[in-house]
Amino acid sequence: MSVLDRDKYKVALVGNPNVGKSVIFGLLTGKYVTVSNYPGTTVEVSRGICSGLGGGIEVVDTPGANSLIPLSEDESVTRDMLLEEYKKHVVQVVDAKNLRRGLFITTQLAEMGLPVVITLNMWDELLDRGMNIDVTVLQEKLRVPIIKTIATHRVGVSALFSSIPNAKVPNLYVDYGKVIEEGISKIEKILQGNTTVNERALAIMLLSGDEVLEEKLRRKFPDPAFVEIHSIRNSIQAHFGSPLSYVINIKRANFVDTLVKKVTLNLKKEKETHPITRGIFFYFLVPVASFFMGYKLMALLMYLISSRFSLNGGLIFMLPLVVGGISSLGFSAYLYLKEYKTKSTIAGALGRITMHPVAAFPLLVIILWIVYKLVGEFGAGTCVDFFEEKVFGRSLVPSGGFDLSISLPFIHKTYIFTHINFQGFNYYFGLLAQKLVDKDNIIFELFLNEQSGLVQVGLTYAIAIVFPIVGFFFLAFGIMEDSGYLPRLAVMVDKIFKRIGLNGKAVLPMVLGLGCDTMATLTTRILNTKKERIIATLLLALAIPCSAQLGVISSVLGRVSGIYFALYVFIICTQLLLVGYLSSKVLPGAPSDFLMEIPPFRMPKVSNILVKTFYRIHWFLKEAVPLFMVGTLALFVATKVGILSFVERMGAPITRNFLGLPAETTHGFILGFLRRDYGAVSIFKTLEEKGGSGGINPKQLLISLVVITLFIPCLANFLVMIKEQGAKTAFLMFAFIMPYSILIGGILRVILQQFP
Amino acid sequence: MAEPSQEEILELIWTLDEESGKVERDTLIKKIHLPIAEQILDTLISEDYVTISDNEVALTKKGIANARLIIRRHRLAERLLNDVLDVKEDVMDSSACKFEHILDEEVTASICTLLGHPVTCPHGKAIPAGECCEKANKEIRPVVMPLSDLKSGDDAKIAYIVTKYHGRLDRLSSMGLLPGVQIHLHQRQPTYVIQMGETQIALDTAIARDVYVRLV
User: Fold this and answer.
1) Ferrous iron transporter FeoA-like domain location, by residue (chain B) (predicted)?
2) Sequence ranges of the domains in chain B
3) Reported ipTM exceeds the 0.85 cut
4) pTM of the predicted structure, to 2 decimals
């Protein structure tokens, strides 16, 4: 072993949740990991190479932990990584304004005897809040390099780089009192010389009742050692009324408190927003935005009920204006009294209003509406049409080209610059292919068949859908995530989610599911218990339509009538709650605690959101597009061999007799397994043809769309379910969902028959 | 302070008075079942606990004050034995009789607080209120209460955490929610949100019930 190799070490990033470890990881390695303003987004250890520091040093990013005596799966991931056998320097990322919680971990690192560099990240937010830390004093006490950083702006990163080789073991020693200290030294003796970190740290973990660690150590030490350790623990526990882990935590916290008091300075001068900005916000933005909100809410409501109640024109015109006025007055007055007078910042006011017990709900509806406008109408409508019809087109029919134009809103004028005579990729590809083979040739059909060609259907749909719908959704999701809105949403839905066996934390996978269920199923890992993960996975597969499907469904139903769309939403929500409630009763296990840090409301950074959206789309292309291709291929084979028509014939009686739908719609349901939205489109087209001149039958449409939403998830989602929950659970869910969705469709049919 | 035997008689007078509104000397003597009954009664009269006129026995001011305390101790003891210790009724009666002579004022107040200042004994008779009960009545909001009883906007310090779940205790303490930490309750609905230093934490009702705080 050369000298160089022996000196080589890895760098481990450690810190509380949501302090910016992933950002710093990205800066050190140039590798991107998803960064967000939602605690607990990193669920796996990511590794990268830092090319600075004299050549390839491995850097490891860990999930956020509040304590290195683990309480949850992600925390034990972090701790286990620190116990691994190799030399390592720890970069501890501390949220500068939460020094106390950071130093809590530092004491544990010191006990482990690991060399540490501390970065006080988000230094700007510390100063904004009128606080300061005396870094010199802190450095004197800890005797480790301490770097001030603002990672998102790359401030202090080079200083951090150069200080990593100088990492030292922090000079912190927590005295746990005579009784516990005696126990620690007894256990230390038992463990002596056989561990990767200091025995003291392990002894404290064992005294705290760390079972995961005990399991690990059992491989190294004989059983009698543990009998002895248990008896030591029990005899110490007898001295205290509360659990030992708690006693230890309190001692540690008191130690940290004393330290923090010595190094923090309170300037008492909280940075204030500029008076003009404040004025604009409180006197202009709030009244205007809340007027718009009230107006829009009322208009939406009237749209939903308009088909049932005939309202006269004046009322339709007046009512939204009145509600808008009331909302404007209410919000402005409330914010003026509560926030403007107390001199709070705009971010603070927004942070509070978005989880206000009353005001937050209309806000939520409006935010959803805006997201729908962006994703559902602009993304799934305008952009998809453009990509699908014009850019890709059809293999046999020219698309006719498109106009390059600009539309001005409000004055309804369109300026056309030029006409682009582009007939679509698929058309040109088709022309090319026809030079080689006949268009009835099987090879031509394999790629360019209108129903199941790999290029014409698989690739075209994957790309034409990915960019517009999923892209816009991820963009909107990124903004909600980075501004800190999502954790506030978690606060609002916690009570409802408790009923269905989840807690507020599950809002992240559930909302992400509205974009892509496959990706959302992967993020169920952030949930605490296995029970919660199973329920969330089931509900995602059953009742959360992805953005592609939702886009199609809402435009189709919206065209028919508002009340049917409202009914659709109502039915799906009811199913979500019902199945969630039942499964929370059936599955064993207690509900887990909802204890979540709410990060401050921040102005999202555009670059971060764009990068994040880019990586999510990238992931989607890499993971989902191959599955689309496989799915299309399977569809092609199934059509040619005749399996498809066989399954259709099998399913047709059920569709016709039980659901009361035309037998041809069976095709759509089967397609739904490959592409949920494509199934919906196919059904819509069938019903349209059947309806003929009499127009589409809205009841049939509603039934079929409810069934296809609840129906089995897409292939990609199903594969991820197998990967995350195991084949057995995934197939059980599959076996439940299929008959259940048809049953609900049947019940819905019977109910709808009662209303002429 | 009166002797145990004197206390028994004072107690008896109180109960008889409570039952029938008046106490006759002869009935009282009969009920005492002691050869020296008259002697004790005379001592009580001479020590100004009791007065007798026309064969009718009445407690003086001093007598009432004493009897009241004895009755209170006895009935609180009954409550304690019955409600908390789940003792059978016959044992309860005899034990309560012993308890009333040995409990001092402080312990009585503690028991009373522990039982939540009860107003009746297991037999349905009134328990005379003590100082602690009045105090509890006046201060509608107790000094230490669960976080779930705070009003939004309140500032408080965490006093202690009582929970059945080990994991919850560890999770709270590693987040920094420990005794002595000052918190500010932001809102109660839809979920509790507290501010602790620069950290905002959301927690559900189950946890909020386990965290006891002291108003500041």
Assistant:
1) 145-215
2) 4-59, 65-138, 144-215
3) no
4) 0.72
